[in-house]
Amino acid sequence: MRLGITGASGFIGGHVTRLAGARGWEVVPFSRQPRDERTRRLVPGEPADVEGLDAVLHLAGEPVVGRWTSEKRRRIMESRVLGTRSLAEGFARAAHPPRVLISSSGVGYYGHTGETEVAENSPPGRGFLAEVCRAWEAEAMKVRNARVVILRIGLILGREGGTMKRILPVFRAGLGGRLGSGRQWMSCLHVEDMAGLALWAIGEESLGGPVNAVMPHPVTNTDFTRLLARAVHRPAILPAPAFVLRAVLGDMSSLLLDSSRVRPGVAEVRGYPYQFADVGKALEQIAA
């Protein structure tokens, strides 16, 4: 199996690369500036070279963390839309295209869900991230000569990167606490399951369309805070009021305050074997 990965050097991409390598797969990374002969070039606006690959996993995109200025919003949108378009054009031009494209998206597709539980067949929500995800997915679905799977990724939990890398030291210091009301739902996935789910989707030959990359059971922010505090054996009594988060982070505060109650309908029905099926076990492993 020859697997092309965009964003191979990132937090998720690194885990996928290691897991694929352990299975004996050859990983071919993509980059804007290839540093060796093995790496292929991926530049928005240029058709990507996907010839000779069996599958492509598309993870690259501008990080959403940071104040959402007009320039930041443009980079978030264009990096995803144009990068995915380049891959789609590469598939269209390839004499022997890969059999499958696994393209990332996000649970932001559903917008603020409140108390409503959503699954893959639920309609898109409102807001900037929902708009980005719709445009992002539309580009991936332009691929007609390969199977396309869209991974709508939730909050990825892991010790070495992502959100946990920032908040774990805070909780270890006893300075953690709920965000806003704490009633907002969080849909999470351990990074090891994220890597496993991506490779599992490649092997599920009848699988196509959206797949929610989340654990079976979302939790409220209050419960997440309690479980993380227990995992690090520290109190969590310093809440961050919603108005403070909005003042400091601007529109990006929606990432922390909006409710995301998402179920992995497809993964559950098809029997994906989770290593960490609930948040408590995931946080215990990360904090150990």
Give your account of this protein's structure.
This protein is α/β, with parallel strands linked by helices. The chain has a single domain, classed as NAD(P)-binding Rossmann-like Domain (Rossmann fold, 3-Layer(aba) Sandwich), CATH 3.40.50. The chain is 39% helix and 16% strand. The protein is built from 10 helices and 11 strands. The strands form 3 sheets. A 7-stranded parallel β-sheet has the order 3-2-1-4-5-6-10, sandwiched between helices. α1 crosses α5, α2 runs parallel beside α3 and α6 runs parallel beside α10. The longest helix has 24 residues. The two termini are 34 Å apart. The mean pLDDT is 94.
Characteristics of this structure?
288 residues; seven-stranded parallel beta sheet; two-stranded parallel sheet; Rossmann fold; 39% helix; alpha/beta
What's the quick description here?
This protein is of the alpha/beta class and 288 residues long. The protein has one domain: Rossmann fold, CATH 3.40.50.720. It has 10 helices and 11 strands.
- What would the principal axes of the Cα set say about the shape? globular
CATH-derived architecture: 3-Layer(aba) Sandwich
Query: Taking all residues together, what is the mean pLDDT?
Result: 94
According to DSSP, the number of beta strands is 11
Query: What is the CATH homologous superfamily assignment?
Result: NAD(P)-binding Rossmann-like Domain
Structural Rg:
19 Å
Number of helices, counting only DSSP H or I runs of 4 residues or more: 10
CATH topology: Rossmann fold
Structural class: alpha/beta
Q: What is the oligomer described by this structure? A: single chain
Helix content: 25-40%
Q: Biggest β-sheet, characterized? A: 7 strands, parallel
Tally of individual domains? 1
Spatial gap, N to C terminus = 34 Å
Task: Give unreliable regions as ranges.
Answer: none
SSE string, helix = H, strand = E? EHEEEHEHEEHEEHEEHHHHH
Q: Strands of the biggest beta sheet: in what spatial order?
A: 3-2-1-4-5-6-10
